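Onboarding guide, step 5: your first structure request.
Type a short instruction followed by the sequence, for example:

Predict the 3D structure of this protein.
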Amino acid sequence: MTKINCPSCGGEIPFRSSTSVFAVCPYCKSTVVRHDLDLELIGKMADLPDDMSPIQLMMSGRFNKKTFFVAGRIIVKYEDGFWNEWYLNFDDGSSGWLAEAGGDLAINFPVASGLKISDKSYVQTGAKHQLDGKNFYVTDVKKMVCVGSEGELPFRGIEGRQSLNVDLSDRSGGFASIEFNDDDGVQAYVGQYVEFKDLKPKGFRVFQGWGKP
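The system replies with structure tokens like these:
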């Protein structure tokens, strides 16, 4: 883990992942971009909207016999509401995401897409795309915008960041998503839906009246 002093308040900002390039200072909420051992101050993060998610930064868990911890979060807004994308770092050095929307969880990992940013004009519901050697079919296409972030991320999770999000299914329980962003290009992810308790979570948020997962 690398700790670098915030250029705004001087507090230590931890970078636990070598792939993280963006972080929100835990003390003053300044947003910074990492350039090796230097930090560039780019703005300030507003207070995040409160929610009832049991997931929080530094929560740990297990998936496919590997331990992970939650390194960051981005909150995105779309036409019908909000959802969380939690950035996961695994003990083998890999990373992934845990999408949380409407009580559903999907864990997914980056894969090559073979798509260009210009291809977003042709994406439509029902279209077939091959990802990670499997056929997936588009189930939903929506515009999304970042309304806040915390922790560390592998891209600039600034407020107002706009993307086109594409959800896909392999029609047998598999899940995939493709994100088109004009600055970061095309990112594709493949994974599956999971239950919170199956992640063997530790260090999660506890609410009064809730039982153990």
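Each response can be followed by summary notes, for example: The chain has no helices and 15 strands.
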